[in-house]
Amino acid sequence: MNTKYLYWITFIAVNGGLLFGLNMAGIAGANDLIKNDFNLSDSGLGTVASFLMIGCLIGALFTGKFAEKYGRKKVMLVTALLYVISSLGCAFAEGFAGLTFFRVLSGFAVGATSVVGPMYISEISPASKRGTLVSFNQFAITIGIFLAYVFDYFLINLGENSWRYMLAVPALFGVLYLIFLLTSFPESPRWLLANNKNEQAVSVLQKIGGKNYVDNELPDMENSINSELNKDKVSLKELFSGKTGKIVLIGTLIAAFQQITGINAVLIFAPDIFRSAGVGGDTALLQSMVVGLVNVLMTIVALKLVDTKGRKTLLLWGAFGMIVSLAYLTFAFSQSEKNTWGVLIALLGYISFFAASFAPVMWVIISEIYPNRIKGLAMSFSTAVSWGCTFLTVYFAPIIRADLGDSALFGIFGIFTVIAFIFVRIWIPETKGKSLEQIEKELGL
Asked: What is the per-residue pLDDT across 156-198, written as a single tens digit (0 to 9) for each?
């Protein structure tokens, strides 16, 4: 196994995840500045923050189809260009409408990345390493979120245009991503085989694992793809009916639960939440950096455990820890005197348990349980639903905070987390250590 080459192309692929994180959290330190600069209401701020997710939903919904038709690599190239254009557009926006438009454009890229990144990595990975390698995408997202907080902290005092510098940061990383893709990045061998480019597919597989790897993997891939070619093209009706419909429902619900348990609302409004707990100014951004760092470190824990302890075990323990943390936060914010250290520790606990479970494992599961014939369409649908849930949480978070308080917000997220725990316990299958073809057979597809 040429692990050096395998990890190199995985590194290039997860640069999209890094940009995902930078775009998601980069606005965290800019919220108050944008609100004051454009004289926005709480609803207006929610619109600017959340409309990125509208773009994500649309980008995710159509990416699967484009990835099947044009290939995973070309979709990634387009996303890299969109990251650069949208970031610069946000930085130079002259008003609310322009900023919102470029936030949506940025969302197109993030949504596409959230589909094509895990899809690509799952298709180049051997079964023994797939969970870890797909989780690297989430690891890159957490690094992007942490870097966004760091840049926000150091740019916050550069004057009235500091928010523009914050939103320009992803453009720099977007250029690097584009260069990597153009210089040393292969197409997915499964896509190449499905499109009668067998020699190129064999070449990629040989670079990844050598001749023995080709001999072991190629027959299963060819048999799986040939069996799918003999079937009729998947229809929307089939996607939502019978055994296929059940699998799509499971994948879509776990994708929805990843978001309605509140993670992106917490990450985007972390500085504001700390201010509500009595932490002011730069200290709120500094504590947000701690949140971002813990997010990164706990994702490393997930990387270590996802291929040893299993997907389902991580999800159950993660949900349990999140429930305890959210219960405390609900209690703490209901008190007139806030325990600042208690709030920080509970938020770090919530982030830790999420980062070690739902954050990476959701992407691993939906990249594994969908057979190749429906993978593009099914992953697009599930991811689009996930982004729809993200939009709702981020849009309504500032409104709920203003009208009902932070206690109500964390209480709502806690209720959804309890439901998520029950769902995982009953419905999520264990896919650790199984080939994509083996998973497909066990699910009866």
From this structure: 888 778 999 999 999 999 999 999 999 989 999 888 988 888 8
Q: Tell me if 217 is assigned to some domain.
A: no
User: What is 67-100 written as a DSSP string?
Assistant: HHHH-HHHHHHHHHHHHHHHHHHHHT--SHHHHH
Identify the CATH number of the domain in which residue 142 sits.
Answer: 1.20.1250.20
- The tokens describing 113, both together, are 């990345």
In a domain, 197, yes or no: no
Residue 291 clears pLDDT 90, i.e. is over it:
no
CA 190 from centroid of its chain's CA atoms: 23
Asked whether residue 213 is assigned to any structural domain, the reply reads: no
Residue 100 neighbours by CB distance under 10 Å? 20
8 Å CB contact between 264 and 145:
no
211 located within any domain = no
SS3 category, 157: coil
Cα dihedral 414, 419, 422, 428 sign: negative
Highest mean pLDDT among 81-90, 232-241, 270-279: 81-90
What is the pLDDT confidence band of residue 299, given thresholds at 50, 70 and 90? Answer: confident
pLDDT for the residue numbered 89: 96
* Number of domains the chain is built from: 1
Q: Which of 350, 317, 316, 322 is nearest to 427 (CA)?
A: 316
Average pLDDT estimate for 408-427: 95
Instruction: Supply the range of the domain harboring residue 162.
Output: 3-185+231-442
- Cα atoms found within 13 Å of the Cα of residue 243, Cβ hemisphere only: 9
Beta-carbon contacts of residue 37 (< 8 Å; ≥ 6 apart): 160, 163
DSSP string over 402-438: HHT-HHHHHHHHHHHHHHHHHHHHHHPPP-TT--HHH
Read off the pLDDT of residues 152-161 as tens digits, 9 standing for 90 and up. 888 988 877 8
